[in-house]
Amino acid sequence: MNESLRFGIIGAGLMGVEHIQNIALLEDASVAAIADPHPPSQERALAAAGGELQVYDDYAPLLADESINAVIIATPNHTHAAVLRDVFETDKHILCEKPLCTTLDDCAWVVAEAARRSQVFWVAMEYRYSPPVARFVREVQAGTAGRLRMLSIREHRFPFLKKVGDWNRFNRNSGGTLVEKSCHHFDLMRHVVGAEPLRVFATGGADVNHLDEEYDGEQPDIIDNALVVVDFENGVRAVHDLCMFAEGSRHMQELAATGDTGKVECLMPPGQVVLGRRIPRAVETIDVAVPDDVLAAGYHHGATYYELRDFQRAAVEGAPVAVTAEDGMKAVAMGVAAQISIAEQRVVLMSELGL
Ligand SMILES: NC(=O)c1ccc[n+]([C@@H]2O[C@H](COP(=O)([O-])OP(=O)(O)OC[C@H]3O[C@@H](n4cnc5c(N)ncnc54)[C@H](O)[C@@H]3O)[C@@H](O)[C@H]2O)c1
Fold it and tell me: Which atom in ligand 1 lies closest to the alpha carbon of residue 15?
């Protein structure tokens, strides 16, 4: 590397702090400043950075600092579009947290703007970066299961955490659970399947969580469980099974790709990849290692570190962008299609959304 990356982080809540902790593990990169109006977030960010950080309430001075050459946007989902309008006025490289935006119109604007600009623009869809998931993807793409026919992505976990200002309790802020949470899984589906989705059917509801919560007299309107079936243009069938009242699960995520000759699974945690063959029948379990300091630097089984490392390579060395604005928009679109499918109890064609 012949040029260092100096980050400014806009939004220093849970995810902003995870970025600070992971950037500390990168070579030749540092966080110069954060911008966040919420004093407790500022304090946590300062503590994570060991006190060496310029702290702003507003992001204008951060953007005006010419020594900062990369910006991470980790503000609530519904603010991404407005923040991006200002960040795109600079030439700083941009890593924007998922989901890209909460509406497809805003996503389309970002796609057009990113194409017009010369800086690196990357959407932080990081699940593909966790080492066990990356190994799973490599095995499927190498043909370990034969010709891929079915893909299943299950996330069974704890309810949504509390956020600053409780923004994640309402669809208008988050985009809805299948945009907010499941854009990760829809991105992973497109990545693994290597084709575009044709149609989506989903069923889901708000059955257990947040039912007795109230914010300024308003009840949360987000769903807490769903099943989403997706047909891909290459004939692969995929299903996403999301349950957010499943603390009793053995694994938080279970991925299964089945082809004509075998099956590849990924179990998280502990971070195992299982390679299965049909004839003669054989099953091999591989423990995929993640360095302890990388594991300890966040909640995403190492994904944030490896995503940031590749973002750095794109920004500094001109390596390709792995998750483009268009990828970000397509993941949001699959979530939007699933939300419409639940609301209208019907199959939604991706072409209805102009994709
Ligand atoms: N990659 C992942 O797996 C992952 C995980 C969690 C969150 N996220 C994403 O990261 C983003 C932030 O989520 P979070 O969990 O950190 O939320 P959070 O509520 O913990 O933090 C958001 C922070 O943004 C600040 N903020 C709000 N408006 C701002 C503005 N205009 N300028 C500067 N700061 C502002 C808030 O004060 C708060 O401190 C969301 O888009 C979320 O979807 C991604």
Answer: 16
